[in-house]
Amino acid sequence: MDMENSPNKHGPCLDKNCGHCCDPIRVDMRNRGELPKDKNGKDIFVERNEILAPETHIETMRLKTFDCINFDTVTKKCLDHESRPDLCRNASCVSDPKGNIDEQHKKTVEEKFIKIYRQ
Ligand code: SF4
Ligand code: SF4
Hints:
The chain is of the alpha+beta class. The protein has one domain. It has three helices and six strands. About 4% of the residues have low confidence. The protein binds iron/sulfur cluster (SF4) (2 copies).
């Protein structure tokens, strides 16, 4: 799963104490949307010097990666969960809410990526 605009999704993040999508944040390079800022206009996402390609879409997908200033690396929780950006609210490892949540979550967290460094 990567961050994308898919309204009304719900991730089992709190139930599973999972911060997989926040560490790092992976954003499809085809996504031209604005990245979130805090109330002072400061970037919440800090870009890493790398690009990832999912092994399952090695030819077609490139993901920029970011660290989030609101991610607690010890507890794996969002420090601003109530006010997290829409980009985060709309991201989920569960595409079929009636399907097996554990299996969908497992598939996401076990997804493998090839790291491509920038020149
Ligand atoms: S993999 Fe699922 S449970 Fe984990 S952070 Fe992403 S949406 Fe939340
Ligand atoms: S704002 Fe919260 S939910 Fe969004 S990427 Fe940062 S830590 Fe994760």
